[in-house]
């Protein structure tokens, strides 16, 4: 990739963004001004002033702003003082004093079922903060080409190696920047998508579909995991819009606890449920050895979010035990 000589004084007021798409693309410079979010695109009341980027009160020169999708609605924005390519996303980088911040953008789901686009997590060095961290607006729904992003992030983190005294770091990013789209790059890109057409869930009135299902059998019962993005026994649940984890005791199986996670929630939630809140059944799967059919029906309030589960999941079995379907 050809790199242009950069005038430092100019870049303190604007930002150069490293190209992706094809690896020879020339990145556009950041722009300032009001958001140009299109009708139907992710929108929020975000910053409308010129771009400001500081770390511990000092101006930071960003050379990369890369936006990718995990397959669902969630977006990951990578901001770096280094010139990066899309192919470098997710790789471990140790290059001198470069600074990289990963920011998750998602439609945050409220207890009333309404959504607003927000920064739902931010990771700097080894520290991650989650929640409603600030508003964001995107110019369109794609992760290809150039995307204008209007955002506000006021992030205070504690960083440091284990055993060392943590150091407080303060990021402030406000205004409009121009990011290069890197397309869909799922966390578990090599994991087979296993659509679950017979199992869906409703959360705060919003319907979700599962593209991954696993079940772990233990002496005291079983744990079913449903995710909007693919996962397997060997991969994580990261990158999903939403995840439902169903804890069961038995046999016969009885749902005792529900846990919720995912980018659209902002934070994890879990709650014990009444014995009669859900019915559950475990059967042999037509998919054969290594899979179980898991039927779950019922509803519960999980820390303010109403969950309705209904249907049958064809779940991959993790750590199978004897005499289990």
How far is the N terminus from the C terminus? 54 Å
Largest sheet: 10 strands, mixed
Count helical runs: 1
Task: Please state roughly what percent of the residues sit in beta strands, choosing from under 5%, 5-15%, 15-25%, 25-35%, 35-45% or over 45%.
Answer: over 45%
Number of domains: 2
Radius of gyration: 22 Å
Order of helices and strands: HEEEEEEEEEEEEEEEEEEEE
Number of strands: 20
> Poorly predicted ranges (pLDDT <50, ≥5 residues)?
1-48, 321-325
User: How much helix, percentage-wise, in residues?
Assistant: under 10%
Shape: elongated
Mean pLDDT: 82
Structural class: mainly beta
Would you give an account of this structure?
By secondary structure, the chain is mainly beta. The protein folds into 2 domains: 8-184, no CATH class; 199-318, no CATH class. 1% of the residues lie in helices and 47% in strands. It has one helix at residues 8-11; strands at 52-55, 58-59, 64-69, 75-80, 100-109, 115-124, 127-130, 136-138, 146-159, 167-184, 199-203, 206-209, 212-218, 221-227, 243-249, 254-261, 269-272, 278-284, 291-302, 305-318. Strands 1, 2, 3, 4, 5, 6, 7, 8, 9 and 10 form a 10-stranded mixed β-sheet that branches. Strands 11, 12, 13, 14, 15, 16, 17, 18, 19 and 20 form a 10-stranded mixed β-sheet that branches. It starts with 7 loop residues before the first helix and ends in a 7-residue tail after the last strand. 40% of the residues are buried. Residues 1-48 and 321-325 have low confidence and may be disordered.
């Amino acid at each position: 990739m050809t790199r242009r000589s950069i005038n430092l004084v100019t870049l303190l007021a604007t930002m150069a963004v490293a190209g992706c798409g094809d690896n020879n693309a020339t990145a556009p410079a950041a722009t300032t001004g009001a958001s140009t979010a299109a009708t139907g695109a992710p929108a929020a009341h975000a910053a409308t002033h010129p771009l400001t980027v500081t770390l511990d009160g000092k101006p930071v020169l960003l050379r990369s702003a890369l936006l990718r999708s995990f397959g669902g609605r969630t977006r990951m924005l990578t901001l770096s003082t280094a010139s990066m390519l899309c192919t470098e996303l997710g790789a471990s980088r140790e290059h001198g004093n470069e600074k990289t911040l990963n920011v998750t953008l998602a439609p945050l789901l409220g207890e009333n079922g309404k959504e607003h686009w927000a920064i739902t997590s931010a990771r700097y060095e080894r520290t991650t903060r989650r929640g409603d961290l600030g508003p964001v607006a995107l110019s369109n729904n794609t992760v290809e080409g150039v995307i204008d992003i209007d955002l506000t992030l006021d992030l205070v983190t504690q960083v440091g190696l284990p055993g060392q005294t943590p150091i407080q770091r303060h990021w402030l990013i406000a205004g409009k920047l121009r990011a290069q789209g890197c397309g869909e790059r799922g966390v578990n890109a090599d994991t087979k998508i296993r659509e679950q057409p017979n199992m869906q869930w409703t959360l705060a009135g919003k319907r979700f579909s599962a593209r991954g299902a696993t079940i772990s059998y233990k002496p005291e019962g079983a744990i079913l995991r449903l995710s909007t993005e693919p996962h397997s026994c060997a991969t994580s649940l990261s990158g999903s819009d939403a995840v439902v984890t169903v804890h069961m005791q038995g046999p016969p199986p009885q749902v005792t606890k529900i846990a919720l996670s995912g980018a659209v929630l902002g934070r994890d939630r879990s709650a014990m449920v009444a014995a009669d809140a859900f019915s559950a059944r475990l059967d042999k799967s037509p998919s054969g050895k290594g899979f179980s059919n898991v039927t779950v029906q019922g509803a519960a309030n999980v820390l303010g979010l109403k969950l309705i589960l209904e249907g049958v999941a064809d779940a991959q079995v993790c750590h199978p035990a004897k005499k289990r379907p």
